[in-house]
Amino acid sequence: MNSIVELRPLGTFTTGIFDEGAAEIPAFDPISDRLFVVNGDSDAIDVLDLSNPSNPTFLFAIALDNLGIDGFVSGAPNSVAVANGIVAVAVAADTVTDLGQVAFFDADGTLLNAVQVGALPDAVSFSPDGNFLVVANEGEPDDGIDPDGSVAIIDLTNGVTNATVAIADFAAFNGRENELRGNGVRIAPGLSAAQDFEPELPAISPDGTTAFVTLQETMPWQS
Question: Which domains are delineated in the chain?
Answer without folding.
Answer: 26-169 (2.130.10.10)
